[in-house]
């Protein structure tokens, strides 16, 4: 059975799960995708040899819509095609309709709801796209249950929790001298890294032992570096750029008391938990589905969104009770291993491919 995955682009965070699928399916699995996403800061980052074919992305209407002409042609032949559950990809509509006519199976994979939530008016368009699919893959068990209730025409809905690492990669490095706070992610406006810098500027004077570690790249990096230089003494904040090598990330996390999510939570939450590090999270942001992994005062601490004093207070609270939080590293790690491993995610995606066949 031949399977084709069509994506806008694929960041390096998908490397391991796609490798796992290739291990299982071999030459029966192929991928086509473009070089960059709707927002330009996300670019192709995986290396999968001849499994992957790069195609042209044609964005229009201010990069709000996308058409991939070659994807339409490539998607007519395979037994199963997996598409993004994203109505803004115009070519995906054509692919679904053509495959319906041909009687071939199409899987939709992505967020169950628009960014504005399941009650958003735009969900009607997404609902139409969902209704055309043979199988739907979402990111959390909660999304699966909620979507199953909403779909009037019952379809197979599978939850494949977003994962970054294999079980063998996820280790909490026990270390008694954890003194830092860490941010890992894109340096873009909606991630609100400036809020973390301003909050740490208040914390650092009270806790001279700690540093702020910023890992990532993006269009706002220069601005953030300038802000940090004006507010924080030299040596107390360090910028590392984008890091994908797991050993380097693991070493940085091993020094961290907590990671920070000053804006919306993304995949970095499972990265942090996979290394046994709790996360400080804004309480009211359009978080990604992975927020489901967070439990306040267990593996996370929530602060009032857009409030630098509240974030600073949460950082100080973690610092004050650091010995207790450090002892939780193995428990935080084990919960993440059970729910958010590459093996589990790949298994669920393969299940969707072969469902009913």
Provide an overview of this structure.
- By secondary structure, the chain is of the alpha/beta class.
- The protein is built from 13 helices and 15 strands.
- The protein has 2 domains: 3-163 and 341-354, Glycogen Phosphorylase B (Rossmann fold); 167-339, Rossmann fold, CATH 3.40.50.
- The chain has helices at 15-25, 69-74, 90-102, 123-132, 141-150, 193-204, 221-231, 246-254, 268-274, 308-320, 322-327, 329-339, 342-354, and strands at residues 3-7, 29-33, 52-54, 58-60, 65-67, 80-84, 105-109, 135-138, 157-159, 180-184, 212-215, 237-241, 256-261, 279-282, 300-303.
- α5 links the parallel β8 and β9 (157-159).
- The protein is elongated, with a radius of gyration of 21 Å.
- It starts with a strand and ends with a helix.
């Amino acid at each position: 059975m031949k399977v084709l995955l069509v994506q806008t682009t694929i960041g390096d965070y998908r490397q391991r799960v796609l490798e796992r699928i290739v291990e299982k399916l071999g030459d029966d699995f192929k991928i086509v995708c473009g070089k960059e996403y709707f927002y330009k800061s996300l670019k192709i980052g995986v290396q999968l040899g001849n499994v992957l074919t790069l195609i042209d992305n044609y964005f229009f209407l201010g990069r709000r819509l996308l058409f991939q002409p070659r994807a339409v042609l490539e998607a007519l032949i395979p037994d199963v095609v997996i598409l993004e559950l994203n109505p803004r990809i115009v070519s995906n509509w054509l692919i679904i309709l053509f495959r319906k006519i041909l009687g071939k199976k199409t899987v939709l994979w992505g967020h169950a709801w628009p960014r504005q939530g399941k009650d958003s008016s735009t969900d009607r368009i997404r609902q139409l796209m969902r209704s055309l699919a043979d199988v739907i893959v979402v990111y959390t068990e909660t999304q699966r249950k909620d979507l199953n209730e909403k779909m009037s025409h019952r379809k197979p809905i599978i939850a494949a929790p977003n994962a970054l690492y294999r079980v063998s990669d996820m280790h909490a490095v026990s270390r008694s001298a954890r003194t830092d706070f860490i941010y890992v992610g894109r340096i873009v406006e909606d991630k609100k890294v400036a809020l973390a810098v301003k909050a740490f500027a208040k914390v650092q004077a009270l806790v001279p032992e700690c540093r702020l570690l910023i890992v990532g790249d993006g269009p706002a990096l220069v601005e953030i570096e300038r802000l940090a230089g004006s507010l924080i003494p030299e040596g107390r904040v360090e910028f590392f750029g984008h890091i994908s090598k797991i050993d380097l990330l693991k070493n940085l996390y091993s020094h961290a008391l907590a990671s920070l999510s000053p804006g919306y939570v993304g995949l970095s939450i499972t990265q942090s938990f996979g290394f046994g590090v709790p996360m400080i999270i804004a309480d009211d942001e359009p978080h990604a589905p992975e927020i489901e992994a967070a439990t306040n005062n267990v593996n996370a601490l929530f602060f009032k969104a857009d409030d630098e004093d509240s974030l600073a207070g949460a950082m100080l609270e973690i610092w004050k009770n650091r010995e207790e939080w450090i002892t939780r590293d193995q428990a935080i790690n084990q919960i993440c291993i059970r729910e958010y491993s590459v093996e589990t995610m790949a298994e669920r995606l393969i299940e969707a491919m072969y469902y009913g066949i």
